[in-house]
Every structure is written in structure tokens, then in C-alpha cells.
Design brief:
Elements lengths: L1 H22 L14 E5 L4 H12 L3 E6 L2 H15 L4 E5 L5 H14 L5 E4 L15 H22 L4 E6 L21 H26 L4 E7 L6 H4 L7 H11 L3 H4 L1 H8 L10 E3 L2 E3 L8 H14 L54 H6 L7
Parallel strand pairs: 1-2, 1-4, 2-3, 4-5, 5-6, 6-7
Antiparallel strand pairs: 7-8
The structure holds NADP nicotinamide-adenine-dinucleotide phosphate.
Length: 377
């Protein structure tokens, strides 16, 4: 009997530890009123993306749900309108696996939406499922598609500064290791998929680092966010049916709910005063140090160049908007088009916060690069 009680006590203690360290997420805070601002959230029909979109909508933003399935996207838009009481939630089709779809989305968005204040790259996959592509599908969906989309929407972000780009990465980036000779090779088997997932999440962190360098002084800042271990369909959808009844309750107990997972991406999108941390990686609503592979500026630069090629970004298209979709298999570089950004409504600057981070502790990015061990906020 005593042994039983001791066992139960230990289990409870272990769960309390797990709960407070993993399951419970700190609330994001940040700008409370987003009226007049527009946000794009990719993969917003489920999991973390849906909860991220909900919070943005509750705060009054116009939210574009960029999803690959019209049915799931429209259903999510309906749910979110009901839950938030905000009617400014719309679905727009985006399949990150297809460069043509990314371009079509950008064209549709630029021609219909005068503002872009917050771009959240949330969509992601952990497996290729049954799809067989002649390229690395995980890298395409998790990194190359978002890379291209960012480039195509930069002009609109620039007209709405201060604006932000958030890339939902993962702690899995710590296991990543980019092999530039095989970056786009097709991924076969679960082992390779897990490796490719970690690599794609490392690519997210390096992309954000390089993007911040390119955008310094423009008023656009960018952040990589780890949502924590979240109870979503990301990994569960690939679990065999017979295992789900066992795993689902366990996942519910020890993993964060999607709403908790949305807190760090939201923090990166909304928290005032974190601009000096542009280019950095956040977890649990705090800036976090990353391993050497994720702060390797040469690798970040090389990845940028390779990504331009993989995204078939034409010379001169970088940081410009291209208003026309192009065929995915086009070999010729895309032509440079002058982008005539529409006149956005006047943008309110981010209001000064009551609880901004102590900026005396903030270290400039160039110093952060030199002093990687310095903790912040
Ligand atoms: N769950 C975790 O523990 C965890 C941990 C660290 C990081 N993350 C990251 O968090 C992000 C969100 O994941 P989640 O956990 O919320 O998983 P999720 O519920 O599976 O959501 C993923 C979303 O991405 C969309 N998506 C997948 N492929 C797409 C494509 N080709 N084009 C456009 N959208 C696509 C999915 O759409 P469909 O519904 O149509 O498939 C879905 O809406 C991912 O980037 C993931 O890597 C998750």
C-alpha cells in the first residue's frame, strides 16, 4: 500500500514538473488592439495556426487564412468568425508545395489587400505522407515556399512598417545539419523524414537570421518561434490508427494545447520592444540561444543563395513583388516587374508598451553575433 502511494506521489510530482515546464505556456501579451492591421497566417485551418489566427482576430486584425484546402480553409474562417466576433477573416488558397501556387497567392493578395502588417509562416509538415516528389518536399513546404512568399510580399510589408515576419520553427532545429550537396534530394523513409524535418527547421532559423540582416533599417523585423511540444495533428496524423487511442490521451496529458503553442509566435508578432532581437529565435516567449549551426552566418548566406535557386526567384525579384504567377517548371529566370504598391491606409506606429522588455538589457544584433552566449530578456 505504501509503495502504491509512493508511486502515485512520484507520478503526480513528475506530472506537475512536466505540466509547468512543458504543458503550461506563458501568455503572449503584446499589442491589444490590431484594428486596421492585416495579418496573414499560413496553415491556419488547424492546430497552432488556427489558434494564432483566432487571437489576432480577437484583437481586431483583418486575418487572411492561407491554406491549401479550400474546404478546410473556409470552414476554419467560419469557425473563427463565430468565435472571435470579427468578420474580417478570409480564406485564400496557398499550397506551399507548389511554387506556382505561392506566386498565385502573392498575386491575389497584392491585388486585393492594401495592407500587410504581420506575416506568420506557420504551415508545416513532418512527413511526406504518400506523396512522392522528385525534390525534398519537407524543405519545400517548411522553408522554400515560405522563403519565396516572403520575397513576393516584402514590398507590401515595407509600405506598412513597422511590420513583422514570424517563422514558426522548432526546437528540432537543434538536431538539424544542412548538407548543401543533398539539400533538395527526395526524402524516403521515416528516418530520413525526421532528419529532413530537423534540417528544414534549422533552415527556418538561418533564414530568419539572414532576413534580419537584409532588412536592417527597413522597419520590418523578423523572428523564429518555437511553439513548444504541441498536441496537434503534425505528428499524430502519421501514427497508425490502432495506436491513436493510446497516444491521443497521453498527448493530451503531456503536450501543450494548440492555444498554448500559439503564444510564442503571437509574442513575436505582437510584443512591443523586441525589434532589436530581429533575426533571433524565441521559445516560451523569450529569446533563446541557438547552437553554432543555427548562428553560422556563412551557412545562412549560402542557404539564402540556394533558396533563391530552389524558389526559382529571378534576379532582381528579391525584395520586389512579382504580380504574375509563373509556370513552376519555367527554366528561364523571372523577369523583373516594377511593383506599384497600393497606397495603404495610414499605419499607426506600435504604441509604447507598459511592459516592454527592459531595453537596457537589449543587445544589438551585431553584438549578439559576436557574443552568442549573452542571455536576453
Ligand atoms: N506540434 C508541435 O509539437 C510542433 C513543435 C514545434 C514546431 N511546430 C511547428 O508548428 C507549425 C504548425 O504545426 P501544428 O502543430 O499546428 O500542425 P498541424 O495542425 O498539422 O498544422 C499544420 C498546418 O500546415 C498546413 N499545411 C501543410 N502542408 C501545407 C502546404 N503544402 N501548403 C499550405 N499549408 C500546408 C496544414 O494544412 P492541412 O490541414 O491542409 O494539412 C495545417 O493547416 C509547423 O510549422 C510545425 O513544424 C509544431
Amino acid at each position: 500500500m505504501e509503495a502504491l502511494l509512493l508511486g502515485a506521489g512520484l507520478l503526480l510530482g513528475a506530472y506537475v514538473l512536466i505540466y509547468y515546464n512543458l504543458v503550461k505556456a506563458p501568455p503572449c501579451g503584446g499589442i491589444a488592439n490590431l484594428r486596421g492591421r492585416t495579418a496573414v497566417v499560413t496553415g491556419a485551418n488547424s492546430g497552432i495556426g488556427k489558434m494564432t489566427a483566432l487571437e489576432l482576430a480577437r484583437r481586431g486584425a483583418r486575418v487572411v487564412l492561407a491554406c491549401r484546402s479550400r474546404e478546410r480553409g473556409e470552414a476554419a474562417a467560419y469557425d473563427l468568425r463565430q468565435e472571435s466576433g470579427n468578420n474580417e477573416i478570409i480564406f485564400m488558397a496557398l499550397d506551399l508545395a507548389s511554387l506556382a501556387s505561392v506566386r498565385a497567392f502573392a498575386t491575389a493578395f497584392l491585388s486585393s489587400e492594401p495592407r500587410l502588417d504581420i506575416l506568420i509562416h506557420n504551415a508545416g509538415i513532418s512527413s511526406c505522407g504518400r506523396t512522392r516528389e522528385p525534390f525534398n518536399l519537407l524543405l519545400r513546404v517548411n522553408h522554400v515556399g515560405p522563403f519565396l512568399l516572403t520575397q513576393l510580399l516584402l514590398s507590401r510589408l515595407k509600405t506598412c512598417t513597422p511590420s513583422r515576419v514570424v517563422v514558426v520553427s522548432s526546437a528540432a532545429h537543434r538536431r538539424g545539419c544542412l548538407d548543401f550537396t543533398r539539400l533538395n534530394h527526395p526524402v524516403v523513409g521515416r528516418q530520413q523524414e525526421l532528419r529532413a524535418y530537423a534540417d528544414s527547421k534549422l533552415a527556418n532559423v538561418l533564414f530568419v537570421r539572414q532576413l534580419a540582416t537584409q532588412l536592417e533599417g527597413t522597419g520590418i523585423t523578423c523572428y523564429a518561434a518555437h511553439p513548444g511540444p504541441v498536441n496537434s495533428e503534425l505528428f499524430l496524423r502519421h501514427v497508425p490508427g490502432w495506436l491513436r487511442p493510446l497516444l491521443c490521451p497521453l498527448a493530451w496529458l503531456v503536450l501543450r494545447a494548440p492555444r498554448g503553442g500559439a503564444q510564442t509566435p503571437l509574442y513575436c508578432a505582437l510584443q512591443e520592444g523586441i525589434e532589436p532581437f530581429s533575426g533571433r529565435y524565441f521559445a516560451n516567449c523569450h529569446v533563446e540561444e541557438v547552437p553554432p549551426a543555427a548562428r553560422d552566418d556563412r551557412a545562412a548566406h549560402r542557404l539564402w543563395e540556394v533558396s533563391k535557386r530552389l524558389a526559382r526567384l529571378g534576379s532582381g525579384e528579391e525584395a520586389e513583388s512579382n504580380e504574375d504567377p509563373q509556370p513552376e517548371d519555367a527554366e528561364a529566370p523571372f523577369s523583373l516587374r516594377s511593383s506599384q504598391a497600393e497606397d495603404p491606409a495610414v499605419s499607426e506606429p506600435y504604441p509604447a508598451s507598459q511592459n516592454s522588455p527592459d531595453l537596457s538589457k537589449v543587445i544589438h544584433r551585431s553584438q549578439i553575433k559576436a557574443e552568442p552566449k549573452t542571455p536576453a530578456s
